[in-house]
Amino acid sequence: MKIEEATYALLEELKRLRSEGLKEIYFDEKNVLALEKAMNSRESDHSENLVSILEGKGRHSLASSESFNLSSSLGDSKHAENPPSEEIRQKGRNSSFPSAPKLELPEGGKAEKWNWLKDRVMSCETCKQQLNPNAKVVYGVGNLDAEIFFCGEAPGAEEEQKGEPFVGPAGNLLDRIIEAMGISRDSVYLGNILNWRPQHSQAYGNRPPTIDEMEFCIPYLMAQIQIIRPKVVVALGKTATDGLLGHNPKRRLSDCRGRWNDLEGIPLMVTYHPSYLLHNPSKMSKRKVWEDMLMVMEKLEMPISQKQKDYFI
Ligand code: URA
Q1: pTM of the model
Q2: Which of 55, 200, 248, 308 has the most Cβ atoms closer than 10 angstroms to its Cβ?
């Protein structure tokens, strides 16, 4: 990967993290030096931006204009109001994108309905057209009697290859969170807002879904929720939250996590996406996610040990 591409990817990721509500980021000294060294030999605008960002080293505020203002770093005042991923979403608005499918679940038990829906998703022409080469459409997996329905954003590189949600690094972390709750991956249900990995021009990273893409896939997700009838839905990250609660560019995850929201009568807990924790593995972020999970456990009257209560403190 070229340094310009890597720099661009890093800036995009920082913007995404900020849109998720991250205010500070920790740069490891060794990595700062390596990046500085690599970028000092270049003269691209992005490199200059990043070098100036990194010059303070250590902990950087993603909001403070003194140490690091992403909006001005990127020379785009719109970023101050709209999270950057919001711009990507809006840019992708396309009036010719197919309208959302109308679904009417068949009569029958959960398994029948779930299999019927799976057939619909796997044979969905729009979903197939959106796929990257050799990739698979990804439908939800898990226990049809699950009490907890975890909803993510969209498949990533590993998921689109395997055709299963949450099998990459974020999925491994989600598995660990689920295990820390004293339950197994097999006992919950895992779904995504999108059934495909959003295409983009870079060979690395993930693009947030556009509003068109989300609107198209939401009926498939809501039908899965209707079939499973979980006692609690957990929205992982901003895209899942927007998909489930309605699009709201001003919404900050930090404002709606840590309390109960309502999804058509089902209690909905919003929390940070595991990939956010992978990028920001501070004790504070982990503790926040864990507190959200403790609320889920309390709601479901699951046993909670003292050790579990004290996790990540
Ligand atoms: N991230 C998601 O949101 N969903 C997946 O399935 C994998 C990673």
Answers
A1: 0.75
A2: 308
Could you tell which of 166, 244, 270, 275 is best to mutate to test the pocket of ligand 1, judged by most ligand atoms within 8 Å of the CB? 166
Average pLDDT over the chain reads 82
* Structural domain that includes position 120: 110-310
Would 92 be classed as within a structural domain? no
Give mean pLDDT, residues 202-216.
89
Q: What is the pLDDT of residue 8?
A: 65
Report if residue 103 sits inside a domain: no
Co-location of 74 and 128 in the same domain: no
Give the CATH number of the domain where residue 143 resides.
Answer: 3.40.470.10
List beta partners, residue 232.
148
Distance of CA 151 to the CA centre of its chain: 9
Same domain? 21 vs 133: no
Q: Are 92 and 212 in contact (CB under 8 A)?
A: yes
- 20, 159, 174: which to mutate for ligand 1, most atoms within 8 A of CB? 159
Strands, sheet with 260-263, edge to edge from the N-terminal-most edge strand: 141-142, 189-192, 148-152, 232-236, 266-271, 260-263
